[in-house]
Structures are given as structure tokens and as C-alpha cells.
Write a structure and sequence with these properties.
By secondary structure, the protein is mostly helical. It has helices spanning 8-13, 16-36, 44-51, 56-66, 69-81, 94-130, 150-175, 192-201, 217-243, 272-285, 288-293, 306-332, 338-345, 354-363, 368-385, 389-394, 397-400, 405-411, 421-429; strands at residues 135-140, 143-149, 177-178, 205-206, 251-252, 335-336. A hairpin with a 2-residue loop joins strand 1 (135-140) and strand 2 (143-149). Helix 6 (94-130) packs antiparallel against helix 7 (150-175). The mean pLDDT is 94.
Length: 431
């Protein structure tokens, strides 16, 4: 957890105080159930709750000696609450508390990330609608292909993050389980009804079958989803970085009046936010493989997953929360330059109309191979000479003998490439 990339709301979730508070919540909920089932004396929860205080510093002091976090926690509570606290943790194992707590923290973090995605979706949608018909060149392999609109570019990201939202919702649901089943998951020393009570209290589902731990395939799905979202962020960031290049300059990150670019070159305005997002995406994805490797634990459990999760739990969710927020601001404040987009469209003197000419030639009797050869020859010549592709087509007798000048002129109409844009928008933005 690095302060530079940590926002307040999600930071609280991963604080020592919140973790210990959840532990206490779990222990008290289990004790409440035990009271109702007459397993422990009535009034225990009330007495412990009135006296118990979370003291992270003291818990860590005890842990230094006992080398066990849950025992240190329970000892700390007993110091404050007295002998009544002996009834806590009856028939439970450490993992009952640790896993249920971890899943609850992931759920809480996931819900913040969902809010982040919703904010981002609004920002993307606004740009998409605004630039629905703003023409720009589409690129494949980095090379000019055919015209698209900037709004359509934005719409691809909108749909991608809608899918990410669904993935995250599914992963939150998957991770929202509770296990209070004892040492190896057999309920030998604890009544299953206690687990049901705790799950309901914490708004979690009961884990149908646990060993000593909640199965880690759930966590693998959760962190894999975060990795996918990070890749979507990077795809967006890379697009902005390319489009901000000096020789392209179709978009540009917002640059404040007092903001500085290069320390050596005062003229520069660098896409630092998008570059930062690329780096954060790499970091977030680095948690995916360890999460997958955590699935294969020995028998009913080992603790090889523990150190991994203590790191990737907070670090990955915190980094993604920051990245989603940063991307939202980049999109919201993005400077878009339609004139530059039009300028870049014209760079190749219309050779991107080659497919239209190709299709028309095939429709008037040429084979596809003949058509391709004719069109490619004229297109490459126009590119080499930096001359008009339309003029080359007009001067080619093989073409004009088959297609009228009036018809050829219509083939070079930009609106041809935007005529279905509305259909794509309607099906993408429908509720």
C-alpha cells in the first residue's frame, strides 16, 4: 500500500483497525448464535461488547510474543472484557475468522470498484455521444485503414467496461461467502446453524463445503477479474498515448495552467497520466498468477496462500481503485481535436477509399483478383507520389470504361463510412 496511490475510502477497508473490527464482529455474531442455541451463557455478547476495545498496537505487541494473530487478538479482547471473553471462538478455527473477514474486505473493496466503474462509464458515454459523428481515421497495425468516428472509438471502451462491470459483479457474488465450520470443515465442534447466523449477519452466503478454508478458486476468479479490468484500462491508456503523439495530436490529456511537462524542455506536454495507468495495470495484473497458484493448497489447508493474500488483497484493490478514478478524470477532461483528425484523414490523399473502388469493380464484372490488382496499383502509386487517389482512378481507362465519373465520385463520400453508426450506438446504449 503506497500512499501516493491510495484513496481514503478503500484505505479504511484494509486498515488494521477495520480488520480487527471485522474479526470482533464475526466472533460476536458467532457468540450471539451460540447464546440463542444455549451453547454459551446468555449475556456474554452484551458484556463483551460493552468492554471490548480494538487496540491494534496492543494486538501487535502480543503477536510478537505468541506468533499467532488470532490468539493475539483474542488475548487483547480478554484483557479488556474479562473472563466472559473465554466463550468467544468456541469450536472455531482461525481460518473461520480470517477467511470470512478477507472475503468481506474483498466484497467491500469490490463494491467501491463498482462505483468507480459506474463513474467511468458515464464519462466514456458522454464523450462517445458528443463525438458520435466526429470523423477520424481507423488504424490497423498502426497504419491508416478506413474512416471511423471518435465516438465509435469511445463506444468500444464503453462496452468493454460494461462487460467488466458484469465480471466484477459476478466475482463479488462469488467471493461473498462465509465459513464457520471448524478445524477441517466438518462442524465437529460447532453447530452449522452458527455459520448460517453469522453469514446472514454479515450479508454473506454460506460456503457449501469448506476444508479448513474457503476454496481459493473463488479468489482466483476475483483477482483475475481485476486483472482483466486493468488490461482494459491499459488499452484505453495506450490509445490516448498514441493519439497524443506530436505528429498525430488527435487528443490530449488536460494540462493545467501551472502544470509543468519536461524538467528540461519547457515546451513539452507529456501523457503522464496515461503512462501511469499503463504502469499500474502491469502491477495489478501481477497479482493474477499468485492468486491462481493459491488454488492448489495441501490437503485441507496450508498457509502458503497467506502471505500472498496479505499483499495482493489491499495492494491490488487499492491500485485498481486509483487507476479507475484516474482514468475517469482523464476521459472527462480529455481535449479532443476534430480538426487534427480531419487533417490526418487527408494525409493519404483518399487511398482509404480503395475498398469501395474494389467492390464496385467486382460488381461490374471484374474478378476479385483483377479488381484488387487494378486498385492496389493506383493506390500505391498515389501513396508513392503523394498524389490524389481519386485522380489516379479517373485516369485509369480500365476503370472509367466500366464505371462512370459520376459513379466514381460517389465512391469517395465520407458519409458512406458513417451511415451505420447510429445502429451501433442504438444497440450499444440501449437499456
Amino acid at each position: 500500500m503506497i500512499e501516493r496511490y491510495t484513496r481514503k475510502e478503500i484505505k479504511k477497508i484494509w486498515s488494521d483497525y477495520n480488520r480487527y473490527s471485522i474479526w470482533l464482529l464475526i466472533e460476536l455474531a458467532a457468540a450471539e448464535a451460540m447464546e440463542k442455541l444455549k451453547i454459551i451463557p446468555k449475556g456474554v455478547v452484551k458484556k463483551v461488547k460493552s468492554k471490548a476495545k480494538i487496540n491494534p498496537k496492543r494486538i501487535l505487541q502480543i503477536e510478537e510474543k505468541v506468533k499467532h494473530d488470532i490468539i493475539a487478538f483474542l488475548t487483547s479482547i480478554t484483557e479488556r472484557a474479562g473472563k466472559e471473553a473465554r466463550h468467544l471462538h468456541k469450536g472455531m478455527t482461525s481460518s473461520d475468522v480470517l477467511d470470512t473477514c478477507f472475503n468481506l474486505q474483498l466484497k467491500q473493496s469490490g463494491e467501491i470498484l463498482l462505483k468507480d466503474i459506474n463513474i467511468l462509464l458515464l464519462a466514456i458515454r458522454k464523450q462517445a455521444v458528443k463525438h458520435k459523428y466526429t470523423l477520424c481515421i481507423g488504424r490497423s497495425h498502426g497504419i491508416h485503414a478506413e474512416p471511423v468516428t471518435f465516438g465509435l472509438k469511445m463506444l468500444t471502451f464503453y462496452q468493454e467496461f460494461l462487460r467488466n462491470k458484469k465480471r466484477l459483479e459476478s466475482s463479488i457474488k462469488e467471493i461473498s461467502t462465509c465459513a464457520i465450520s471448524g478445524a477441517v470443515g466438518t462442524f465437529a465442534n460447532i453447530d452449522p446453524r452458527i455459520e448460517n447466523y453469522v453469514a446472514k449477519k454479515l450479508n454473506l452466503k454460506v460456503e457449501p463445503v469448506s476444508t479448513q478454508i474457503i476454496p481459493r478458486d473463488r479468489h482466483a476468479q476475483f483477482f483475475s477479474t481485476l486483472g482483466i479490468i486493468a488490461s482494459s484500462i491499459e488499452r484505453f491508456a495506450v490509445e490516448i498515448r498514441h493519439l497524443q503523439r506530436t505528429e498525430v495530436l488527435e487528443v490530449e490529456e488536460f494540462f493545467g495552467k501551472k502544470q509543468k511537462g519536461s524538467s528540461a524542455m519547457p515546451h513539452k506536454k507529456n501523457p503522464i497520466l496515461s503512462e501511469n495507468l499503463t504502469g499500474l495495470a502491469r502491477l495489478i495484473r501481477s497479482s493474477v498468477v499468485p492468486a491462481l497458484e493459491n488454488v492448489a493448497l495441501w490437503h485441507e489447508r496450508d498457509i502458503s496462500h497467506s502471505a500472498v493474500e496479505r499483499n495482493i488483497g489491499p495492494d491490488t484493490t487499492i491500485a485498481l481503485d486509483f487507476a479507475l478514478n484516474r482514468l475517469s478524470n482523464v476521459v472527462k477532461d480529455l481535449n479532443v481535436y476534430p480538426k487534427n483528425m480531419l487533417r490526418n484523414l487527408k494525409l493519404t490523399n483518399g487511398i482509404f477509399f480503395s475498398q469501395r473502388v474494389l467492390l464496385e469493380l467486382t460488381s461490374v464484372g471484374f474478378t476479385r483478383e483483377e479488381s484488387y490488382k487494378i486498385v492496389q496499383k493506383n493506390a500505391l502509386q498515389a501513396w508513392k507520389e503523394n498524389s490524389s487517389f481519386y485522380d489516379k482512378i479517373l485516369s485509369d481507362k480500365k476503370i472509367t470504361n466500366k464505371i462512370s465519373v459520376n459513379k466514381l465520385k460517389k465512391l469517395f463520400d465520407f458519409s458512406y463510412h458513417t451511415k451505420k453508426i447510429n445502429i451501433i450506438f442504438n444497440r450499444s446504449l440501449k437499456k
